[in-house]
Amino acid sequence: MIHYHGTPITPRAQLLQMAGRHFCVSYFKPQDLKTCLTIGQSVMLDNGAYSSYTKKVPMDAAGYYRWLEPVLAPPHWGVVPDAIGGSIEEQHYYLARFPAHTFGYKNISAVWHLHLPFSHLFFLVNAYPKVCLGSSGAYWKVGSAQWCARMDETFNALVKHFGKVPYLHGMRMLGQHSGDWPLASADSTNVARNFKRNTGNAEHMAAGIDAKQPAQNWTKKQLQKGFFDKKEGE
User: Fold this and answer.
1) 172-194 tens-digit pLDDT
2) According to a count of CB atoms within 10 Å of the terminal CB, is the N or C end of the chain lower?
């Protein structure tokens, strides 16, 4: 699994020590973008939907597209705008308006929210090279019993439908301890928020997270227990 560490990470000296890691930079908080493009293996360019949703401000999709245009190229990739907690129709509104002809489908990922039906997930897997899993609705709290059960259902459904697990990215899911869900990549601001009270060193904390990998394949079908510590999972 590729581990994308969320930014901003301050002070800057702590971020620079993480050279060689993978980073996630949000359009909502873009101040570390130039540095991450310089020192990171790759950068996940997030649309800022989570911050827009939690702060109750409108998403600036047009501004996000302008922000992406000069930097979106392999190995970096961007997340198509999405409506957290929204209907399928609301998701398609953003999907239909994303200028894929400018960015190319290989460089982007669509988001499937856990409260939506699996039929929409299957559609996205067929249409996009990677799909992000977003926690929403009754499954908002990452690591809760309900969330774990829904993740089990999701992977069961994918294997039944496709015969294997496609490329899935877990949004806010980095720090997975149980290793049960074979995500291809995941992100989290865990290091940015907690390194000062954890180890005091961002690189040391990131190294500990990056050293743990989930399972290669999906085999378990029973309800998984919550696996995050109180300070993790965002």
Assistant:
1) 999 755 558 999 999 999 999 99
2) C
